Amino acid sequence: MATERIQFSLPGFLAVDQVSQQARATYNRTLKYVRLSTLGINPSGSDITVQLRLAGSAQATTYSLPAGLKSAENTAASVAVAANTWHDFIVVTTGDAADLIVEAEFEVAVTASGGSTADLGLGTLGQLKRFVLSAGIVAETTYDEALTFIGKGVAGQIDRYCNRTFKRGASITEDFRGGTDFLPLARYPVESIATIGLKSVGETSFTTQATVIDTVALDTGCLLLTGAIGSERDQLRVTYTGGYWYDSSDDGTGSQPSGSTLLPLDIQMAWLLECQHVWQSRDDLGIQHVQQGGNALLNTRLGILEFSPASKMTLEPYRRLIL
Prior knowledge:
Elements: E1 2-13, E2 29-38, E3 48-54, E4 57-65, E5 71-81, E6 87-93, E7 98-108, H1 125-132, H2 144-162, E8 169-177, E9 180-184, E10 190-199, E11 207-208, E12 213-217, E13 222-229, E14 235-242, E15 244-245, E16 261-262, H3 265-280, H4 295-302, H5 309-315
Parallel strand pairs: 15-16
Antiparallel strand pairs: 1-7, 2-5, 2-7, 3-4, 3-6, 8-14, 9-13, 10-11, 10-14, 12-13
Helix pairs in contact: 2-3, 2-4, 3-5
């Protein structure tokens, strides 16, 4: 179970039948308690009482703020509020007071985990949804497209900021210009190197180079050869396995490959926090909840975002600096 709190405002001098603003959710909720407080004149002579309205119909229970008090809490009798039902509060007695705030706490029953194994580069869509969305809507797919672009975009930004690729790749290929003996691999820690190939100018395929590896700094991805191979016009190709592994099963059932290194939690936390920042900033960026056709705009806007100081501090030790 999860809880949500919503404030309903009744500004100015209170009047009988005065109604607060409305609220609605796309999931079922249960009202658990109501807190009444005044920002202006305290009730005097009589209590302030209000009722919950569902779809414009007042419910029987009244919630009160006794005369002379600034605030009071009322335990609700577990009033069920069905999904997509507009609800608000209506004034029954005023107590000659002003500027009333009604804070309602709802209990939300999560009917589905919102799990999704879609890989976003530093975690799954399911992880991201559970982190940035309220409990009642993680099972919905309405915002999957927007969150997918945010997750992949932020993961790409983190990779670029750190000059490396964090996600593990198995038997991947990476190309370099020839005529060098130093090859900085993008994915590390390095687990294994399968082959090093050379494609000379005019050739169409790579020729495997035997016994050309001098040393490999597995933790930094720096591959040193016994000597420069080919010329600058030639192409070198390294086939290897490296990078950080994380469980993309989304339910914790994935099996970590032997010899791999688990993605540090602080990197994944930086990814989640930056994704949350983008999600919460979407109104300022003018994109809101991006629907079909808004992908290009969201992708473009990601390029102007700055990492928070906390994320920069977290990522700094993982940055690759090559002179």
